[in-house]
Design brief:
The chain is mainly alpha-helical. Helices cover 80% and strands 0% of the residues.
Length: 177
């Protein structure tokens, strides 16, 4: 029996990994922009990773189920593997989403990471993860590794810069109150 790869799983893995990296780093960047502690980064980062990962996975499941119901004209959908995409989205989100937190996690478990290096290292792990996920998807899409990696890195960078800037702006607004 030969396994045929389901392209919906690739979509779910790429979507989950990208969103996990970007939203978790957005929390890191927003907290760094507001000059809050590393402990706040970990609390908000982990809470975001689990809550948003579950929401993404369950949303993927509901989207898949809705799409099948629509194709079947509203009739009941048989549970034939529709949960796979949601699970892939969640797992990819949590694994990839943990990467921006690695410098903070390392420091919290006693590995010597200077506080001044945590955010720069998070930027590096985030950029590397975005590029790698973008490059890995080219195994299936057959486009250029550089194009795939840089495309995902560019999209993530836009969100990261926005999070940092808005974190800094909110911090300034709150300090001025």
């Amino acid at each position: 029996m030969q396994y045929k790869f389901d392209p919906r799983l690739l979509k779910s893995a790429v979507f989950g990994a990208n969103d996990g990296i970007v939203t978790t780093f957005a929390v890191v960047a927003g907290v760094a922009g507001a000059h809050l502690s590393a402990q706040v980064v970990l609390i908000l980062g982990v809470a975001n990773m689990i809550a948003d990962g579950l929401a993404m996975g369950l949303g993927d499941y509901l989207g898949e189920r809705s799409e099948r119901q629509m194709r079947n004209h509203g009739s009941k959908v048989v549970g034939d593997g529709i949960w796979h995409t949601g699970l892939i989205t969640f797992v990819a989100f949590v694994i990839a989403g943990s990467l921006p937190l690695l410098p903070y996690i390392a420091n919290s478990i006693g590995l010597p990471v200077a506080a001044s290096m945590q955010f720069p290292l998070s930027i590096f792990t985030t950029a590397s993860a975005l590029f790698c996920v973008g490059a890995l998807r080219t195994v299936f899409t057959k486009c250029s590794v550089w194009r795939g990696g840089l495309e995902m890195l560019g999209i993530g960078a836009i969100a990261a810069v926005a999070a940092y800037v808005f974190g800094a702006l909110v911090e300034k607004a709150l300090v001025g109150m």
